[in-house]
Amino acid sequence: MTVHDLSEELADSPTGARAIAKAALILRTLSTFGPRGATLKEISAAGGLPKATTHRILAALLAAHLIERPDGTRNYRLGPELFAFGATIAEVFDFRGLARASLDRLAEETGDVIYLGIRSGFDGLCLDRVNGLQAPKELALDVMDRWPLGVGVFSLVLLAYLPDPEIREVIDYNHRRLSNEEHFSWSRIRGAIEEVRRDGYAFRSMLTHRQIAGVAVPVFDRKHLPIASLCVVGTGLRLRDEHLQDVTNALKREAGVIAAIYETSRHRSSHREAWREVLDRARNTASAE
After folding, report:
1. Residue 126: what pLDDT?
2. For residue range 156-213, what is the model confidence (pLDDT) as tens digits?
3. Is residue 283 one of the residues assigned to a domain?
4. Both 45 and 100 in a single domain?
5. Residues 44 and 161 in one domain
6. Which residue in 33, 157, 200, 216 has the fewest CB atoms around it within 10 Å?
7. Contacts for 14 with CB less than 8 Å, ≥ 6 apart
8. What is the dihedral of CA 202, 208, 211, 214, to 10 degrees?
9. How far is it, in rounded angstroms, from Cα 244 to Cα 34?
């Protein structure tokens, strides 16, 4: 279900429920602006919400420390409380830790650059990178870079396997965000998505680095939804023909390994909180006295 679908479903619900759906949209919107943050005008335009509504929700999110306003700016950005929320479940969703062995194996096997990406709102987020012995010297993507979903193979393969209504929402959002650039319109990117679904992987030569090419595959959860992407980047002369096929097969193999580890970690029984044990011991000691 998309954020806008949720808003429509809650149209007849209490005002608070509709506000939550809009707050979720604003948080996703802010995530696309990164540490710089965005002004009220930018957030309103990108999210497609009226300025008054956007301002009211931003004020509530500020009060809850879910967002903040850096000193000396008029911008809003994601806040410290969201980081704390994520830290509490970092072990469950630690894709970087879950996938590191796979990245190392792929780098050694292919000699190329291996990337790990995940979806973050309307973006693909690069979580990790391992360089093989024949890695290209010039690379466009760095760890912790955010690229709009659909831009670059590592994020295109994440976009391609989302439900169709969600794909449309992402494309519409990023089309506005990229100043309505025609190359990111629905009509342009639909063909790329169909190609990825047909082939089971995304392959592109870099427009800004013409001697470099990339191939990426999705990592699926048990519902066949994309939770991450594995990408190999190498020189255009190497990443073709038999080597391209070998690389694609290796990526799919390791994607299966990561998916299995992920599902196991998600269902791992949680440990008892230490503070509860301390209180229990104190309570038992007091009772004994």
Report:
1. 95
2. 999 999 999 999 889 888 888 777 565 666 777 888 999 999 999 999 887 555 688 9
3. no
4. no
5. no
6. 200
7. none
8. -20
9. 34
Residue 34 and residue 156 share a domain: no
Which residues sit opposite 124 in a β-bridge?
119, 147
Contact indicator for 36, 2 with CB cutoff of 8 Å = no
Flag whether 271 is in a domain: no
Asked if residues 231 and 214 have their Cβ atoms less than 8 Å apart, the reply is yes
Question: Three-state secondary structure along the chain?
Answer: CCHHHHHHHCCCCCHHHHHHHHHHHHHHHHHCCHHHCECHHHHHHHHCCCHHHHHHHHHHHHHCCCEECCCCCCCEEECHHHHHHHHHCCCCCCHHHHHHHHHHHHHHHHCCEEEEEEEECCEEEEEEEEECCCCCCCCCCCCCCEEECCCCHHHHHHHHCCCHHHHHHHHHHHHHHCCCCHHHCHHHHHHHHHHHHHHCCEEEECCCCCCEEEEEEEEECCCCCEEEEEEEEEECCCCCHHHHHHHHHHHHHHHHHHHHHHHHHHCCCCCCCHHHHHHHHHHHHHHHC
Residue 9 pLDDT > 90, yes or no? no
Tokens of 66: 């879910």
CATH of the domain at 161: 3.30.450.40
